[in-house]
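Example S7 (structure tokens).
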């Protein structure tokens, strides 16, 4: 990797190339995570599986995606970012390819739920937090916004194309395309991703030349790192406020809209390509919204930003059932409004975690917070599927999801808030 650093030169910091490589990794992982939403209806038609059964596999995938976060961050501290990512990407590509052979629901749970869910959990937000804290001292919010936006870009790039492939060639061709995309980024990680700036004789971007050198990889067991950090953080109020607000964030994004919107559009007579295109349009707006959120989190109070993000998202979800009945402007208005806010919550949440727990502990703490995000997503993926199966509509699920977001808007105002010192009373 020294040859790449020399090729780039001194005018361009290698940290930006690291961001580009990680962006592509997250892009491939985002496309992989989005794939089951395109496959839901075809699997229902071919095998007769209920939407609740398919949602179970997706919920396992989402839960493991989140639960892997703190252990992935700890493994990156112990073994390094590159080895950890190479194993995860290989597992992800193999798992997706194996799913072309599945014929039973338990096989979908094993492959898409366990293998793919665990592997994509490594190439996730905890990876972004690790890279940002290692490579950048300034512009951390902006860089975190760019990396987080890769999830939206993954939808933009993959979903319409995958939906078209499903429509014309079937779902098995889709899994081969996704497996190939995961395999393509393997050599980029192997040859272009250093562990730390010191490996290419640099300091983190924006760091003073006389600042202390960051510690190298620890010899501590990753399990000890992950659970030790959890034990420390769980004794603080801020951790639980971060955890439960992000639980609601996951329930209202990946779990509900990300999993069920295409199927919901089908209930109103729209094709899978139309539903996927709606998600892709939301991805375009989220690309701008999340990047802007990162820029804002470098300049404004993160608690206030999160209050507005959650509050506006809740209102947009309550509007969604009515959007299908409004000609022309109904769904486009939702796509713009909700898309700008999709995962704009991530940069301010990382900023708060770093402010509270410090640069070294923040990635692992944030990994546990992301676990809450994905547990919320798993809860919503399964719960919305069950509500749809029993009620025949997603309206109740939309209202519950919107209401939870309004609760989160209140919760976040208490994060990292200094305790009030009582003023001395005059005698």
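Recovered sequence:
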């Amino acid at each position: 990797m020294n040859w790449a650093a020399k090729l780039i030169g001194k005018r361009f910091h290698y940290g930006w190339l690291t961001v580009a490589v990680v962006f592509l990794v997250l892009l491939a992982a985002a496309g992989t995570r989005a794939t089951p939403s395109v496959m839901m209806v075809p699997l229902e038609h071919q095998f007769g599986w209920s939407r609740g059964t398919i949602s179970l596999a997706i919920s396992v995938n989402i839960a493991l995606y989140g639960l892997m976060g703190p252990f992935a961050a700890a493994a990156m501290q112990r073994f390094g970012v590159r080895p950890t990512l190479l194993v995860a990407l290989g597992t992800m590509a193999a798992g997706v390819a194996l799913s072309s052979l599945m014929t039973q629901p338990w096989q979908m749970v094993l492959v898409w739920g366990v293998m793919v869910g665990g592997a994509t959990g490594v190439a996730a937000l905890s990876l972004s937090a690790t890279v940002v804290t290692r490579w950048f001292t300034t512009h951390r919010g902006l860089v975190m916004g760019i990396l987080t936006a890769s999830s939206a870009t993954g939808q933009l790039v993959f979903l319409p194309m995958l939906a078209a492939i499903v429509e014309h060639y079937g779902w098995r061709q889709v899994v081969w395309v996704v497996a190939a995309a995961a395999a393509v980024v393997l050599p980029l990680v192997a040859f272009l991703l250093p562990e730390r700036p010191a490996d290419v004789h640099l300091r983190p971007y924006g760091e003073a030349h006389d600042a202390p050198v960051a510690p190298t990889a620890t010899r501590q067991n990753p399990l000890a790192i992950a659970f030790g950090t959890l034990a420390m953080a769980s004794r603080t109020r801020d951790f639980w406020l971060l955890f439960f607000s992000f639980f609601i964030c996951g329930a209202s994004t990946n779990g509900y809209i990300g999993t069920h919107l295409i199927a919901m559009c089908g209930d109103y007579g729209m094709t899978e390509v139309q539903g996927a295109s709606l998600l892709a349009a939301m991805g375009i707006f989220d690309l701008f919204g999340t990047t802007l959120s990162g820029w804002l989190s470098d300049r404004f109070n993160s608690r206030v930003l999160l209050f507005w993000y959650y509050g506006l998202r809740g209102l947009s979800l309550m509007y969604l059932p009515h959007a299908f009945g409004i000609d022309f402007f109904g769904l486009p208005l939702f796509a713009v409004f909700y898309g700008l806010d999709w995962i704009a919550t991530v940069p301010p949440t990382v900023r708060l975690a770093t402010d509270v727990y410090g640069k070294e502990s923040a990635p692992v703490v944030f990994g546990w917070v992301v676990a809450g995000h994905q547990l919320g997503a798993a809860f919503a993926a399964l719960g919305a599927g069950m509500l749809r199966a029993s009620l025949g509509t997603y309206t109740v699920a939309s209202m519950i999801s919107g209401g939870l977001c309004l609760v989160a808007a209140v919760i976040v105002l208490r994060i990292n808030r200094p305790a009030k010192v009582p003023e001395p009373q005059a005698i």
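Notes on this example. Residues 7-196+220-414 form a domain with the Growth Hormone; Chain: A; fold (CATH 1.20.1250.20).
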